[in-house]
Amino acid sequence: MFVIDTSAILSRRISIADDNYIFTPGVISEIKKGKLKIILDSVPLNIKMPGIDSINAVIKAANETGDLHVLSNVDIEVIAMAYEIHGIIISDDYAIQNVARHMHIKYEGADLKTIDKKLKWRYRCTGCRRVYNDYIETCPVCGHKTKRFTYK
User: What digits encode the pLDDT tens for the residues 9-61?
Assistant: First the structure.
């Protein structure tokens, strides 16, 4: 079974009516208008919501990878659903792929190349250039915003 992220739907590279696809309610709600909305409303879809234990496991993993602050609730739903059913995520979102990789969940890109190694993040102040291991929005030293970067 494949768990479909919004980016996969927007890529238009998948057949939405495939019986092997699972959608979370949040993914469906992100498609608000246009031809895709009409198509989603006209075909039977396999829509499921993951359990709270799976959601909590994803939040824990996303915190460990440093991706939690860039994941939406819908992104967390998608990863949690794949975790729960041992499914494969189809998404072009690198944060989703990174957390999935950390949790040993399989993933495929819909339109873009997938990540091929686990990403680790640090945060650099755009003002004083100090580096922080954990996410902070603004530097406590100089007050500038921080920017995320990968490291080995």
Answer: 888 888 777 889 999 999 999 988 788 788 888 888 999 999 999 999 999 99
DSSP class of 125? E
Structure token pair of residue 15: 């057949």
Q: At what angle do helices 73-85 and 94-102 cross, to 10 degrees?
A: 40
- The answer to whether the pTM exceeds 0.85 is no
How many angstroms separate the CA atoms of 99 and 96, rounded? 5
How far apart are alpha carbons 143 and 146 in whole angstroms?
Answer: 9
Domain boundaries, the chain: 2-108, 120-151
| Alpha-helix runs per DSSP H in the chain | 6-11, 25-30, 34-42, 52-65, 73-85, 94-102
Contact between 7 and 92 under an 8 Å Cβ cutoff? The reply is yes
Q: For 2-108, CATH number?
A: 3.40.50.1010
